[in-house]
Specification:
48% of the residues lie in helices and 11% in strands. It is α/β, with parallel strands linked by helices. It has a 5-stranded parallel sheet with strand order 2-3-1-4-5, with helices on both faces. α1 (34-58) runs parallel beside α12 (248-264) and α2 packs across α12 (248-264). The protein is globular and about 75 Å long. Bound molecules: adenosine monophosphate (AMP) and magnesium ion. Adenosine monophosphate (AMP) is lined by residues 71, 96-99, 127, 131-132, 135-136, 142.
Length: 292
């Protein structure tokens, strides 16, 4: 269990029927503005760096951070800022795009399993296996490519996938991989502003994709898919947090705080040497000190 934290209000209780209209997109409490929150983010980034190096030294646990959210909700920026202090060798970021032909030839969790972090590392999934109950649900024609044809199977598909995913996350947790999941909750107005700024500023043009604007037409379908996902896959062992995403600086503060508090609760520390190890150190010291 994660210890009580500043942003527990965003945690989805297991089994709760989520109503997204009750979760704010523009909350910033307890901060009034970005300047006020800067120190807090800097402190958490330092804490994460320190805990990650202990995680690595201990080599027992891994942490999997899952980021989901509609286009322009700030996933990439969150990864960049929250992980800015962490040793790159201890952190793997994986962004999932439209699956390849090879990936589609495997079971739907295959490509995500291959990308899981090894012990000692923080793995970040920028989009994740949850796309399999989001974009694939909004565009069921994608399922044809996943070779699931029978109508009967399709009817039970989403409840079955929720169950699979819960089981998968339980398996991960029991094998030392802690799972933290963040849904970046963006308002439709703010998405429009961000798309427009991608069109307006030359240094953001590269982020613009025509398909993003096309996907906006499916806004309500995505919101329904998010609600169903959040209502069925938040568990004690792998909780969802619905993070306000209209203010980028606040999203980052919340995500950094929740990961840092979770890692603090994992009792990470540098391994202590046993007697044999300490004796080896002493021998090495003597050798070095007595070098001719
Ligand atoms: P981006 O994150 O902006 O680089 O876009 C990645 C694109 O890949 C998004 O449009 C996602 O919806 C799409 N995508 C990710 N995973 C899947 C999946 N499993 N099936 C189909 N499309 C996906
Ligand atoms: Mg995009």
């Amino acid at each position: 269990m994660t210890q009580r934290g500043l942003f527990d209000r965003y945690r989805v209780p297991p089994g709760a029927l989520v109503d997204l209209s009750t979760y704010p997109t523009d909350d910033t409490a307890p901060f009034v503005d970005k300047t006020e929150a800067q120190q807090k983010l800097a402190d958490d980034v330092d804490t994460l760096a320190d805990l990650q190096s202990k995680l690595y030294a201990q080599n027992v646990h891994a942490v999997l951070v899952v980021l989901q959210g509609i286009d322009a909700s700030g996933k990439d920026g969150t990864v960049k800022h929250v992980m800015s202090g962490v040793n790159p060798a201890g952190c793997d970021v994986k962004s999932f795009k439209v699956p390849s032909a090879e990936e589609l030839d495997h079971d739907y969790l295959w490509r995500y399993v291959r990308a899981l972090p090894e012990r000692g590392k923080i793995g970040i999934f920028n989009r994740s296996y949850y796309e399999e109950v989001l974009v694939v649900r909004v565009h069921p024609e994608l399922l044809g490519r996943e070779h699931i044809q029978s109508a009967k199977k399709r009817e039970k598909l989403w409840p079955t996938r929720f169950r699979d995913i819960n089981n998968f996350e339980q398996y991960l947790t029991e094998n030392g991989i802690e799972v933290l999941k963040f849904f970046l909750h963006l308002s439709k107005d703010e998405q429009k502003k961000r798309f427009l700024s991608r069109l307006d500023s030359a240094d953001k043009n590269w982020k613009f994709s025509e398909s993003d604007v096309g996907e906006r037409a499916y806004w309500d379908d995505y919101q329904r898919a998010f609600v169903d996902m959040l209502s069925h896959t938040s568990s004690e062992y792998a909780p969802w947090y619905i993070v306000p995403a209209d203010r980028k600086w606040f999203t980052r503060v919340v995500v950094a705080d929740i990961i840092a508090r979770k890692m603090e609760s994992m009792k990470l520390g540098y391994p202590e040497l046993d007697l044999t190890g300490r004796e080896a150190l002493e021998r090495a010291r003597l050798l070095l000190e007595n070098e001719p």
